[in-house]
Amino acid sequence: MADIIQLLPDHVANQIAAGEVVQRPASVVKELLENAIDAEGDSIKLIIKDAGKTLVQVIDNGKGMSTTDARLSFERHATSKIRTAEDLFQLHTKGFRGEALASIAAIAHVELKTKQEHDDVGNVIEIEGSKVVAQQVVVTPKGTSVSVKNLFFNIPARRNFLKSDAVELRHVIDEFHRVALAHPNISFALYNNGSETFNLPVSNFRQRIVNIFGNKTNEKLVPVDENTEVLKISGFVGKPEFAKKTRGEQYFFVNNRFIKSAYLNHAVSSAFDGLLKNGTHPSYFLNLEVNPQTIDINIHPTKTEIKFDDEHTLYALLRSAVKHSLGQFNIAPVLDFDRDPNLDTPYSYKNTDTQVPKIEVDRSFNPFKSDSKFSGKQTTVFKPTPSNWDSLYVGLESKGNESQHDFSEVHFESEEQTASMFENENEVQQVNTTYQIHNKYIVSTIKSGMLVIDQHRAHQRILYEDFLKNMTIKEATSQQLLFPLQLHFSKQDIDIINQLKDDLEHTGFVFSNVKEEFIDITGVPVGVPESEVSIILEQLISDVENEVPDSNFSATDLLAKSMAKSLAIKTGQSLQKDEQEHLVNKLFACKEPNVSPTNRTTFITMSVDELDKKFI
């Protein structure tokens, strides 16, 4: 029998390795930025075009490479940081596998320009699909410039899996943030399609956070500082009142390297117990310094997951440090009782001294005199007692006996009604009897048996079709706010709002001002409470960034889905009878009542025969 096992060709092996290291343009950005940091540069520029699909270029002013090093850097497992296996547990640099450049060169057109400080000229190398096309001398400034063009040009299937430019750009910006936050001692700049998106000067850690996420972030930060033999913690956590629905601003850095750790994230979340609303997540920017020998970075190709020797100790220390900082800065839950404003001191008497009241008694006062005057400061005049006063009580007993059991005129106070979920209550049709179970499901009778409706998903479908209709015909009612509502966002979030501004206005939003870090809203859609506006926009931005559901859907459809999800009545909300029936009627007036906007079942039916079988 012939041998069937054979060695893979180098170009195939490189493409397989590229599948582990390079998943999207953001992966290239991460590897090139880390190489630039290892080159000891203090100024790094990132230039991208078409969200990195056409071009990713990183320029640094580091120490550069010699001609031989430049050529060797594109070989597999070629690295300057590892000599023995023990070196893997003494890592103080970023890239150490020696796979990044080789993997990138296997699936893109790469151009490398580099020059060392003492050299007169530098070198340029051009590689296409692992093949060196050209290598020659070139005039270039000190440092290294790596240009990666036409990513996945020779693997079109991988290129087809990339998302839209907006989503890929968001991933690139996320990687840029992670590297820039870990190294505030280096200046970073990001240029997207020829325009400057970020220009971050050298600063301290707090200022770097503010430069990235906006000036409003400064007042949200609470410092965390703890130094032990095992672990050194520094950084900031966000105040509980600024917690968000999304997990966007959560950063762990271990020895200046960004990591993801659900275990450590739980330690921070548990420190916020009792301080956060349900469904919100705290923000944190925490630097952890540990002995390199106690961690293993080499367990994941992207090096974002780390294995710790003693996770339980780190968990306890981290939780205690965050809890101590929150307590030290008087951030603790308070009891908020309802206060009667009528008991407040009037403004005109606020600074006056209190006086002891004086009581004067007129000892000569006789209440039986027909005309008596009170001789104090305040004079009271008593009217004469009528001569026929006793006739006032004639017939009182008989009247009382007659009306003892007459309750025809008795009126009862009704309980306070909460706001209705729909505008015109006259539209409600009393068709079927409905019941609400566990404030989650609405049960209604039908001819063949029983109908069970999920109230949250059903209302999502109703709102989704309403919003879609308003945005399509561009007619929507807006309720004006008494005072403009100012909301603060980061620069990239403002860019997303600008892209969706026209569609948002068709749903009823009115924007009076859109600046780099804040927006002013003067009108909102009818039925949207002012307190929900920021939550709706945050959820919308998150959905657009993560492209929920997918790039095949239009921005209008995505906006309608996101707003319907945010504004739909929630599970646990009690509904009145008329609201339940109105919900049922509106649902079955929809074009697709069977599923929610996210294609989940809105109702189920159970026939009488199926019910009978349950009792057999």
From TrEMBL:
Keywords, alphabetical: DNA damage, DNA repair, Endonuclease, Hydrolase, Nuclease
Signal peptide: none
Designated name of the protein: DNA mismatch repair protein MutL
GO MF: endonuclease activity
InterPro entries, alphabetized: DNA_mismatch_repair_CS, DNA_mismatch_repair_MutL, DNA_mismatch_S5_2-like, HATPase_C_sf, MutL/Mlh/PMS, MutL/Mlh/Pms-like, MutL_C, MutL_C_dimsub
SUPFAM superfamilies: ATPase domain of HSP90 chaperone/DNA topoisomerase II/histidine kinase (SSF55874), DNA mismatch repair protein MutL (SSF118116), Ribosomal protein S5 domain 2-like (SSF54211)
Annotated ranges, domain MutL C-terminal dimerisation: 433-575
Top-level taxonomy: Bacteria, Pseudomonadati, Bacteroidota, Flavobacteriia, Flavobacteriales
Role played: This protein is involved in the repair of mismatches in DNA. It is required for dam-dependent methyl-directed DNA mismatch repair. May act as a 'molecular matchmaker', a protein that promotes the formation of a stable complex between two or more DNA-binding proteins in an ATP-dependent manner without itself being part of a final effector complex.
UniProt domain DNA mismatch repair protein S5: residue ranges: 209-327
Gene3D superfamilies linked: 3.30.230.10, Histidine kinase-like ATPase, C-terminal domain, MutL, C-terminal domain, dimerisation subdomain, MutL, C-terminal domain, regulatory subdomain
Membership in a protein family: Belongs to the DNA mismatch repair MutL/HexB family.
PANTHER family: DNA MISMATCH REPAIR PROTEIN MLH, PMS, MUTL, DNA MISMATCH REPAIR PROTEIN MLH1
